Amino acid sequence: MNSSVSSTARLLGAGLRALLVLTVICGVIYPLAVTGIAQALFNDKANGSEIKDKSGQVVGSSLIGQTYDLPKQNPDDAEEAAKPDLKWFQPRPSNGLGSNSVNTQYALILSGATNRSAGNGAVGGRCTEDAEQGTLCAQVVAAKEAVITDNSTAAYQVKPEDVPADAVTSSGSGLDPDISPEYARIQVRRVAERNKLDVKQVEELVADHVQGRTLGFMGEPRVNVLELNIALRALTKS
Q1: pTM assigned to the model
Q2: Nearest-angstrom CA–CA distance, 41 and 9
Q3: 192 with 198: CB under 8 angstroms?
Q4: CA quadruple 50, 56, 59, 65: dihedral positive or negative?
Q5: pLDDT tens column, 18-34
Q6: Element (H, E) at 61
Q7: Contacts of 238 (CB under 8 A, 6+ apart)
Q8: CA 71, CA 75: separation in Å to the nearest integer?
Q9: 176 backbone dihedrals φ, ψ, rounded to 5°
């Protein structure tokens, strides 16, 4: 009997010692080591790829798209549609899967795609103005009309065939921070006019913010909208 109790006690003691050692290694030492390495070698990425303005204030992340809308006339009206502030470069449609309804303290958009087919709402195999409301085609047609209307000026008319796909469709995540150089260039004249800048200045601003393919072959050339708008703000204040 005493031998059995002694053996059980030794096993419990060994198990407890193993638990404590593994807790220290896996729960303290390993997380601290990984965090330290991340902060030392990848400080920017480890902290959320934050973007700061010239004053040093964090204004967002380079990985998450933002909207640039005018303030609502009635902030308490959830049904009031947001209107874009056309003095800024606008991102691609980023509807996600809807708004956060779990913790309403935070105004979040849930990441995800609609999973609708390319022909959802198509009439005769094409997206037309006759597309049923609520379908992907209806959204694309409305977005295309808005891009043409918003970005056409007295001296420049946007052609329907010049509107790129990313200007009228959201990404798979719904939170894409980048737009194509083509979409950025369509917005140049409108942005220049609204901010009373020379078109050439804004064109050069866009050209300076075009990022090439990752490693030279992955993905497509792109423009980060937040970084571009930060540079635009600095230009308007210069």
Answers
A1: 0.79
A2: 46
A3: yes
A4: negative
A5: 999 999 999 999 999 99
A6: strand 58-61
A7: none
A8: 8
A9: -65, 125
